[in-house]
Amino acid sequence: MEPKDPPIALFVRFLKFGCLAWGGPAAQIAMISRECVYEEGWVDEESFRKTLAVFQVLPGPEAHELCVYFGRLRGGKPGAFLAGLGFMLPGFLLMLGISILYVEVGLVQRFEGVFEGVQAAVGALVAMAIVRLGRKFITDVPLLLIAAASLALTLVAGLSFVLVLAVSGLAYWAWRARDRLPRAAGALSPFGPWLAGGMLAAITLPLIAMIFVEGLKAGLLTFGGAYTVIPFLQGVAVDHHHWLTNDEFLDGIALSGILPAPLIIFSTFVGYLAGGLAGSLAMTFGIFLPAFVLPIFFHRQLVAVAENPRIRPFLLGVAAGVIGLIAAVTLQILDEGIMGLPTLAIALASFAALYRFEAKLTVVAVILGAGLVGAIAL
Description:
single chain
């Protein structure tokens, strides 16, 4: 039997990953795979690719889920929990500290030009996410049409996040299963609880409980990676509950871009502005809970679902719908963040840098550079 690692050793190893997790999902996954697959040989390359493919089409930040998966592999359920905790802890503590400074010290008022610059760069950052997700998931014309329809339904019809995703998934599933629709209908039954849970009407809850519930819904309904949480949290935290303004929301995304953490850690910022320290803990716990529970307790079932030829089209349709949602959010961000030629130039230069360079620290350099230009020119 393969030897297991002590839980504390796993925690320390993945804490190190968390301290070095700059550069977004691609850089984080490359770092984890280099050590766990190619240096340590915990799994072979083919098994790693299969596992990554599962996490890429299911809810949650895939880099964090990989850490939990490797922790489970080497240290059982305690190892899985400690590996995931170690990876997210540095980013959480840094984001919490920045959130406190943002509110208590008034960072925006002190550095207004800096934040105007980084907000322009955030539009470019999210636009680049569309390009990367499109390359990964838009593999045929129907998926492209679904993404375009998702964009239109969000901007023009104002449909809810969950409804758009459900329609997108069902549309592509129906297209792929058009010759066998009656038999294929039962294949979507595993998604009943997720869709029903997402469509439940809001109920009256104390503020902290509501923050946790919205975080949990985000963790369950954001398919295809960390960027997909942006339109969901913007809808619930800014448009529905009015916990923070859109400018504050964009500041949170920008600040997460300079931290060694999954981009989804900006949810800590959202939670803090919504409900203080308890709110930041509730939002972070809610949004990361599925990323712990699913790989620890349901990994085999998730693999079976993601590889099921009758269910996979639904997941791909949802991923295409997510791309349309992110495109809608990008247009809103650019509409609010571009306030003249200087901010337009910052956005264009940021996008060009992100498109041209894929180094680990490109995102950090772009955000810091945009802030510096904003401080000088705005």
